[in-house]
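User: Show me an example of a complex going from sequences to structure tokens.

Assistant: Sure. Here are the input components:
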Amino acid sequence: MEEFSPRILPLLWRRSIKARKAVGRPPRLSVDLVVTTAIRIADAEGLEAASMARVAAELSVATMSLYTYVPSRPELADLMVDEVFWARDLRGEGTFRERVRLYAERTFAMYRAHPWLAELSRARPPLGPGMLAEQEFVLAAVATLGLPLRQLNPAATAIATWVTSAARHEAESALLRRTTGLSTDEWWLQRGELWESWFDVEAHPTMTAIWNGGAFDRGADEQAQDAYEYGLGLLLQGIEKSVEGDDRVP
Amino acid sequence: MEEFSPRILPLLWRRSIKARKAVGRPPRLSVDLVVTTAIRIADAEGLEAASMARVAAELSVATMSLYTYVPSRPELADLMVDEVFWARDLRGEGTFRERVRLYAERTFAMYRAHPWLAELSRARPPLGPGMLAEQEFVLAAVATLGLPLRQLNPAATAIATWVTSAARHEAESALLRRTTGLSTDEWWLQRGELWESWFDVEAHPTMTAIWNGGAFDRGADEQAQDAYEYGLGLLLQGIEKSVEGDDRVP
DNA sequence: ACTAGTTCCCGTAGGGTATACGGAATCATG
DNA sequence: CATGATTCCGTATACCCTACGGGAACTAGT
């Protein structure tokens, strides 16, 4: 009764494996080389540009040769993701807030350097060292508060989800700017007709009130950033407060 | 000096347009028919199944005929999204909490019925009636609290982002279950080798402590749900508290 | 009844994508 | 030099989107 054993785990954790004795035809490439090449292409031209054919061409090798190193394209994507997660290099001491700040900064930087991350699903992520390092770091950050064990995971997941959502949103915005040639503000301007020709004032009283109050003066990307910081503040404050006993509204 | 005028706005707001006088060859289909057919296919088999060729075949029409009704596939996707957003039918009175609850329930139901929504980016969404109805509803919900105008938008965006993130995550999980044939738990089980062969206890003390404390007993989907509810509670509480004056930590 | 104007319908053609299969090439070892 | 192991890769299949342009089908006007 043999279990199905996915070939991806040994690949993700390949750095923990000692090299086998050399036998057979020696390889021209390596998994690392394939992965870093794919990352380089995706950084510059987007995820879909990093096709098997393109990566192979970049390495002066036939397309099918890549399948010696990587089982298929989804697995290559997993390896790319865990590689940049690992390179984020989450380490450091400090208070709860300091650690969260470090986590957020590094995460935003990672998504800015590798916006194609936003083109890949977060569900069922690669279970490699990079992914686990993130889990550990955020959990450890929350643990500094002294919360009960059962509350650590929800709190850490909430923080990671919130930060990652915002970083992904920013990355998607950057990708769209590159593929369409338009910034978010230019995109909105191009659709100014919406307000002139289609918007129904009576059906949207609250939006209209805010508009008339002049509170829509910031660009769309800035509004998203505002909401991110506002929400992060509420989350952190709520998590901290839950340590000090009763947190009901009086 | 003519501005570039996107053809998509009149399509999104087509219900606000009075029918033109009939002239020329009468159409066999309609925009609504194309959009609802595409939605039906995507509901049953995923977004990529709703290709131009497939939708056309379903309507017994040649592929290129669709381009009479819809400028291109991305625009068709926009129309699909706004259609189901509009069908969510967000209306209702009530307290802040009641409205947020209604918004969350309807949103989760929408993503359950149309999981392909999670395959489309949230950045630069279709600016149609469905999208604007969501904005208005959430803003109005927050407005019941009497917050200052400038705080309405960040608060509403935070709520919508949080709820939508969770609904999308659940939808992605459902999509993966369908395409892979494995539930999330089965997927984790298949990777049990991770803990046996690869996981480094010393590098992950916090995770290990939680594990030993037995706080990892819930499945991955349930953990995500827990984190969602936990975080939503913190956000709502924080937003409510900010009405009652100073909310600093003592 | 005829024509002009308008709109819809759609065949063809081109450039992408991932990967199953099987055989040739290249190495260390005995 | 033979053997076994491993890498390398040519071919073929089945999708995808959409630019272009010409034929078909209708109304309105005369």
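The lines above are the inputs; the final block is the predicted structure for all four components together. The CA atoms of residues 7 and 186 of chain B lie 46 Å apart.
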